[in-house]
Amino acid sequence: MRRYHLNKEQKKFLSDFLNSLSVAWFSAGVISPFFIKVNDVLQLGMQVSGSVAISATLFLIGLKNLSTRK
User: Fold this and answer.
1) Count of the separate structural domains present in the chain
2) pLDDT tens figures, 35-65
3) 3 falls within a domain
4) Is 40 domain-assigned?
5) How far is residue 25's CA from residue 63's CA, in Å, rounded to a whole number?
6) How far apart are CA 25 and CA 35, in angstroms?
7) Is there a domain that residue 34 lies in?
């Protein structure tokens, strides 16, 4: 498997993109369900917890990508 090495500007761009994606996922998956009619509280809880997990993962990947030095 070939590994690609990114320069500093590309790493910053990728980190910014992942952090923006994290915020978008958080707002779509966590905040928006509170503005719609909820039929199943368990489904709402699963959606919110899953969205928080995905948002946190994207955010941490963005931070880790930014912190790696070469």
Assistant:
1) 1
2) 887 788 898 888 889 889 998 998 888 888 7
3) no
4) yes
5) 16
6) 16
7) yes
Within-domain flag for 56: yes
Closest of 24, 25, 45 to residue 34, by C-alpha: 45
Contact criterion met (CB below 8 Å) for 6 and 14: yes
Cα distances from 56 to residues 23, 40, 48, 49, 61, in angstroms, run: 9, 24, 12, 10, 9
Q: Which residues, including other chains, have CB under 8 Å from residue 27's CB and lie 6 or more apart?
A: none
User: Against a cut of 0.85, is the pTM above it?
Assistant: no
Which domain range does residue 44 map to? Answer: 8-67
| Beta carbons within 10 angstroms of residue 26's beta carbon | 18
